[in-house]
Amino acid sequence: MPDFPAGFRWGVSTSAYQIEGATTVDGRGPSIWDTFAHEAGRIVDGSTGDQACDHYHRHAEDTALLAGLGVSAYRFSIAWPRVQPTGTGPANTAGLDFYDRLVDGLLAAGIDPVATLFHWDLPQPLEDAGGWLHRDTAARFAEYADLTATRLGDRVKLWITLNEPFIHMTLGYGIGTHAPGRALLFDAFPAAHHQLLGHGLAVAALRARTASPVAIANNYSPVRQVGDTDADRAAAQAYDALHNRLFTDPLLGRGYPDAPGLDPAVIRDGDLDVLAAPIDVLGVNYYNPTGVRAPEEGSPLPFEMVPLDGYPRTAFDWPVAPDGLRELLRQLHHRYGDALPPVQVTESGCAYDDAPDAQGRVDDPERIAYLDGHVRAMREAMAEGVPVTGYFVWSLLDNWEWAEGFTKRFGLVHVDYPTQRRTPKSSYAWFRDLVRR
Ligand code: BGC
Predict the structure, then answer these.
(1) Which residues line ligand 1 (CB under 6 A)?
(2) Could you tell me which of 188, 209, 186, 190 has the C-alpha nearest to residue 198?
(3) Burial of 310 (0-12, 13-18, 19+ CB in 10 A)
(4) What is this structure's pTM?
(5) CATH 3.20.20.80 applies to domain 9-436
(6) Please, which pLDDT band fits residue 304 given cuts at 50, 70 and 90?
(7) First-residue to last-residue Cα distance in the chain
(8) Choosing from 20, 347, 366, 401, which is the catalytic residue?
(9) What is the pLDDT of residues 145-158, one digit of tens each?
């Protein structure tokens, strides 16, 4: 493995609903994911995040696992319905107390707390009022950011406003496989604009309360055009605009790209200035590239997504393509030039069907190969001049993988859900050694 610059940030990521459990404790209100997971047929194994990894009660043990890993940063998310149980009104002190304990525990272990404000768990009452389709949710989000930073702003070392607004819009409001389960296809654009507006307003709220840097974590997927007709090219461009540019161009001062579904009527005067509030770091979440070709005639979509041949595959059936990370980092650099802030890879990881052997050890060579490939690909992009300053593995723990329930394991640490026993996998030792070096 090549050397990395001193001060490079190595970390791991998690999110609140996927690990915390304790969903009715200390005044927490319901989120859209509580509602969705409890609806029949939504989650493949019928599970919910009611208990998840019980991290709410086991955070000290999990912080010890982080310390053993030697990471310099831990990216977690704050559950909005713990801080504001109904999405509005004063802060619920007991909810913030939990994050206070977590943050202090991390700092005592020498680990930088990196907090994401929104990882998809909108308070249910806000969804009842229209969710992110409703412009007012953006203002509510800024209020929540203000309350949270008032309590934690002196200790969180990097603030991330939103996690993957593209995925939340697409799966949550576009096709409905995630909460809140709306299937509006291209009428979901208001959920894009209002999330980005909320981001911009939250950046301003955070700046007023903290001197720590502020970021957003976007999902990116380099597009592999399949076929080479003009129609295939147009389809690849349309998909690229939607996935890779819609949530980045306006943040970096370019306004919206020409993307499918874009509805100018949703955008008010002055909004683009709010969206373009300077950020200090761009969070990049990368899992795989996407194959795209022209759609069949009569398709409601301007593109068709096709499986990419020739790659090994994860348990999610996602192609393992480390070169995609290098390509997307290069592309961001090329596309935005000096407007691109320093990048941190805020999620990178893979699911495999890991299970303990007869001795209780969990060996996951595929994950080690996956991470090794992606870290090297990132390092190559850095050598070419892309400003990358951090890398976070998704995830510390096996956890509740949204619509896939407990069937997909992404952790460096195996979790036996009935007993909540944590067992570091061989990838944990591999990552620890990498960080040490
Ligand atoms: C999300 C995580 C999720 C991971 C794997 C990302 O899109 O931010 O919450 O677990 O992908 O699917």
Answers:
(1) 15, 18, 163-164, 167, 219, 285, 347, 394, 401, 410
(2) 190
(3) exposed
(4) 0.98
(5) yes
(6) very high
(7) 9
(8) 347
(9) 999 999 999 999 99
